[in-house]
Amino acid sequence: MSDAGGLRARLTTLSRRGSLRTRLTLLVTVAVALAIALCAGMSWFILQNQLIRNLDLSNLESARQGDKPYLEHTCTPDGSPGPFDGRATLLFADGATCSIGRPIVPDLKADIAALKPCEPVYRDGVTRDGERVRVVTINFKPGVAVLEARPLWHIERTMRIAALMLGGVTALGVLGAAWAGLAISRSALRPVGNLTRAVEHIAQTEDLDTRIPVTGNDEIARLSASFNAMTAALAGSRERQKQLVADAGHELRTPLTTLRTNIDLLLRSEQTGRSLDPAAKERLLVNVKAQFAELSTLVADLLQLARGDTDHEPHVELGLHEVVTAAAERARLRGAEVVTDLEPWYVVGSAASLERAVLNLIDNAAKFSPEGGQVEVRLRDGRLTVRDHGPGLPAEELPHVFERFWRSPSARGLPGSGLGLAIVAQAVTEAGGKVRLANAPGGGAIATMDLPGTLMRTSESDKSP
Fold it and tell me: How far is CA 233 from each of CA 1, 202, 236, 341, rounded to the nearest angstrom?
């Protein structure tokens, strides 16, 4: 028991600590070995039962066809054994027996039932000299039963040979199962090995362009496809990050250079003792202030674009019409003429992000509106439109308006960072919507924002009592 327990413990440790290939090989080997052993054991028992059944039928036929009257006659005190097939014994009601050949030891508990008419009784028994036999007991007449027997040595020898043969087959089967388990584990885990090597390669080289060949449509293929999609997304994110950093560096260079130039001019005038003209100095300071304002706006926009997907506020159900109203009020405080026509529409998103997006659309429209021109804001069935009555945009510039740092040639002299519409596109995409900009019929430009939602609130907690 201790050896078996130790072996079980070692196998358990191996299955826990070994590699996946080792565990899979061990699992297949044990499963196939158990199946082979079970089949061998069942075959052994089936063969044994069939041989004993055949022997029982032979015994029964001999007992029924034997010369039992002669046997009974020869069992008188002066009689001699008669010609009975095999070994036979008569059992009388008083327990006396008369035998031909080696007498069979009666089992009174089992054989006594055959003294009366009944079905044959089958059992294993022994002769008086200790030989193992198979016995069938049948009723001869009331009060007399016949015990017919045949030796079991040939069946026992056959079963020993069968046990050796089945044991050899089981041993070969276990070896074959181990080989098959190893082959199966190698074949099944080859894609996992490829995936592991790819992950290790990426971890060492940071090469996100690595791809794993995908064959088939099983779980391993799906895992490989998911891994390829993940690395592609990471590569795209890193590329966008690099592009953002490069564009930000380019855009920051101009205001920083202007600020440094103006500040150097002020310092030089103070260090040389030649003061600038008060009007010129005021213009210079106003320019520095404007550059600081532009730089602050650019940095804020960059932070808005560079934040991760998990850095924004949790998305909740909110009224888009309420968000648009708040953005329009902020635009009016900045001097824009905004006219609104809003219907209720409830969406799921971030209120701050969506308000910033709507405000950017209104500010952009106000920037290109003529003096005294109005910005028309309309919300119907989840579609928000912001229209100005300015000059509009050339058709070749429309595909680029939502790109980062892109600015129309006509707008490069106006304040702004070139990131406002990019922030709009990001906020709308996060809310599951779409945004586009086109030239409006009759002049001007019109921005259209479509957001999925409903006409009424669906969240019970947000409903008014």
Answer: 57, 14, 5, 40
